[in-house]
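Tokens in:
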């Protein structure tokens, strides 16, 4: 499993497309795709890319008040992705937005989003085989 993390519009998608020269299956919250339906989008011999985690996390925040429950839900999902990759032998690619850069939002809901997204990013980095930080269209492998 690969994780690409960085700020908004810093070139994460372009780098993923460059590294994975073959066909990619995109599961994106930016196109109103629910991540829980990801298997229905998977094509037989393609790597799958999941992006827009901040929107999926925000949706979970609307339904669940317990931050630990939300984190555990997404951690279980990451484990499911990792197992699928192991079984099928096709790469799972996560594109996550780095949020905050140390700035704490005043709004409570935005703070919760930043905190939970940070925890989920940490979980993803722990489970990923490779982690890349992306900025200004460049990448650095950190794991």
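Residues out:
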């Amino acid at each position: 499993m690969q994780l690409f993390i960085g700020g908004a519009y810093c070139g994460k998608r372009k780098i993923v497309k460059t590294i994975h020269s073959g066909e990619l299956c995109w599961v994106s919250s930016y196109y109103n795709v629910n991540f829980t339906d990801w298997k229905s989008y998977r094509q037989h011999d393609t790597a799958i890319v999941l992006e827009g985690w901040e929107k999926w996390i925000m949706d979970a925040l609307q339904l669940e008040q317990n931050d630990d429950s939300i984190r555990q839900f997404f951690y279980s999902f990451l484990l499911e992705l990792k197992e699928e990759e192991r079984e099928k032998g096709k790469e799972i690619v996560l594109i996550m937005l780095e949020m905050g850069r140390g700035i704490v939002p005043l709004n409570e809901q935005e703070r919760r989003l930043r905190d939970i997204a940070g925890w989920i990013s940490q979980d993803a980095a722990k489970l990923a085989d490779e982690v890349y930080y992306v900025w200004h269209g460049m990448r650095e492998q950190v794991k």
